[in-house]
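Progress note, sequence design subtask.
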């Protein structure tokens, strides 16, 4: 079954939509991912903790309960994650150290894609670029970081707004 890595910013959007009882792109993306495969998390709980830190907000138990339910359904699965396989390359790219775990998780879970809205996963050196330059990178879902991830990890980087279209093409 296909694994996907879901960054904390996507879970934040997902949880906000759930709290507002609004179905929008985050809920649609997560539902499509769970239909196509499962979400990988590290056995050590670091990625889940970032989800909770970023997304739990006023409803931490609701997110914890959702995660527990999806674990029982095997729609969220744990993976043993190596410590730091290629920090030198990730540091050279300019990827923030706190984001290295998502790359390691993608590698150890053999993920099809990392789902994120964070420009760092597309081209971290363009983090301070103007809005027009960032929009072009996002439009193409391509940049130096995503190319490195594709070549060295073997997975793609998808923006949450494009998840359903990517999965329809699969």
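Output:
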């Amino acid at each position: 079954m296909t694994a996907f890595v879901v960054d904390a910013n996507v879970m934040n959007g997902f949880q906000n939509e759930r709290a507002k009882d609004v179905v929008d792109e985050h809920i649609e993306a997560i539902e499509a991912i769970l239909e196509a495969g499962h979400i990988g998390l590290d056995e050590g709980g670091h990625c889940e903790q970032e989800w909770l830190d970023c997304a739990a907000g006023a409803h931490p138990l609701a997110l914890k309960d959702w995660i527990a339910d999806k674990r029982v359904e095997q729609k969220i699965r744990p993976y043993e994650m190596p410590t730091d396989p290629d920090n030198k390359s990730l540091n050279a790219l300019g990827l923030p150290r706190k984001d290295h775990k998502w790359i390691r998780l993608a590698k150890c879970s053999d993920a099809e894609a990392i789902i994120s809205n964070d420009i760092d996963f597309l081209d971290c050196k363009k983090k301070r670029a103007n809005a027009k330059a960032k929009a072009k990178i996002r439009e193409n879902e391509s940049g130096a970081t995503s190319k490195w991830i594709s070549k060295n990890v073997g997975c793609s980087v998808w923006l949450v707004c494009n998840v359903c279209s990517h999965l329809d093409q699969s």
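Residues 8-20 form the longest helix (13 residues). Work on this subtask will continue into the next period as scheduled.
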